[in-house]
Amino acid sequence: MTDFLHALLSSDVPFIRYALITGLVSSVPFGIIGSFVVVKRMSYVAGAVSHSVLGGIGLALFCNNVLGLKQISPMTGAFTFAILMSVILSYAIIRGKERIDTVIGAIWAVGMSIGLLFMSVTPGYTDPMSYLFGNILLLTFRDILLITVLAAIITVISGIFYNQIVATIFDEDFARIRGLNVNIFMIMLIVLISVTILLLITIVGIVMVIAMLTIPPAIGGLFTKKLRGMMAISAGLCAVFMTAGLVLSFLLSLPTGSLTVVIAGVAYILSIIFYRVRNGMIRARLEIK
Q1: Are 234 and 220 spatial neighbours (Cβ–Cβ below 8 Å)?
Q2: Residue 169 needs a FRET pair 20 to 30 A away by CA distance; which of 25, 72, 158, 178 works?
Q3: In sequence order, what are the residues at sequence separation of 6 or more whose Cβ sits closer than 8 angstroms to the Cβ of residue 17?
Q4: CB-CB neighbours of 89 under 10 Å
């Protein structure tokens, strides 16, 4: 642990400090948006967006190395694709003329394929695995600033439109009767999900970011029936999982993203066991009485 603290404060390895800051800053919007995703059962939408952003990353790398547009970072490309795909998904969900599972599958596959194609024609060595499974060495100070701004925007928007988003999630028909423009807030929710996914892609990767978006809220939902409580527990757990994954990966020389998700998965299993044992004991006491 002493070695980790030394590395954390050292100027020679700033990426460890950047990773910790990213995890802690992202925990709040992850807790909020993740709770919306779990309650609305939209993990399939989050999965499609998280995988399709590889297209934006590949395009950004191509622009960097071939076209000389150094100002376009991989995070910028991922952000652009995330917004584009969220708009397409929103249109498909609202219009309902196409099978939504077909649209999601197409976005999922085509987005990743575009990214791999651009990477293949980009000079030099580009490892797709770094983006698929995370690599904290990719973090830069510019990324930290962008992530902090995005996290603040997500949190503020979610707070301002909390009641409208909750109404859209739980009962769309009732919300329409009350005069709420459900379509607008559904689009807003999908865009917020897309942007939230970007916050941890660099650390846990495209493939595994969906786990951090769903597991902490799922654990929170076991211990509270209130949405705000679920968000608070989820945010706290996300911060704990990210910190634990970073510390243990440094001490054990293991991939940070994979280890973080495994820690979250183990915590979820233990939470389910604890929840069922506790409920069983409560029912047994009631039967005795």
Answers
A1: yes
A2: 25
A3: 8, 9
A4: 25
How far apart CA 93 and CA 188 sit, in angstroms, is: 13
Cα Rg, the chain, nearest whole Å: 20
CATH of the domain at 142: 1.10.3470.10
Share of the chain above pLDDT 70, in %: 94
CA distance 153 to 5: 31
The rounded distance, in Å, linking the Cα atoms of 145 and 241 is 22
Half-sphere exposure of 122 (CA within 13 A, CB side): 21
- Concatenated DSSP letters of 69-128: -TT--HHHHHHHHHHHHHHHHHHHHHH--S-HHHHHHHHHHHHHHHHHHHHHTSSS---H
Torsion angle (degrees, nearest 10) of CA 94, 98, 99, 101:
-70
pLDDT digits (tens, 9 = 90+) for 13-43: 777 888 888 888 888 888 898 899 888 888 8
- Residue 31 has a CB neighbour count (10 Å cut-off) of 25
| Lowest-confidence pick of 137-141, 166-170, 230-234 | 137-141
Q: How many domains does the chain have?
A: 1
Q: How many residues does the chain have?
A: 289
Can you tell me the distance from the alpha carbon of 28 to that of 243, in angstroms, rounded to the nearest whole number? 14
Closest by alpha carbon to 56, among 73, 33, 41, 68? Answer: 73
Whole-model pTM? 0.83
- Host domain of residue 252: 2-288
Phi-psi region of 162 (alpha: psi -120 to 50; beta: other; left: phi over 0): alpha
Q: Is 248 exposed, middle or buried (0-12, 13-18, 19+ CB in 10 A)?
A: middle
Is pLDDT larger for residue 146 or for residue 222?
A: 222
Q: Please say whether the beta carbons of 37 and 106 come within 8 A.
A: no
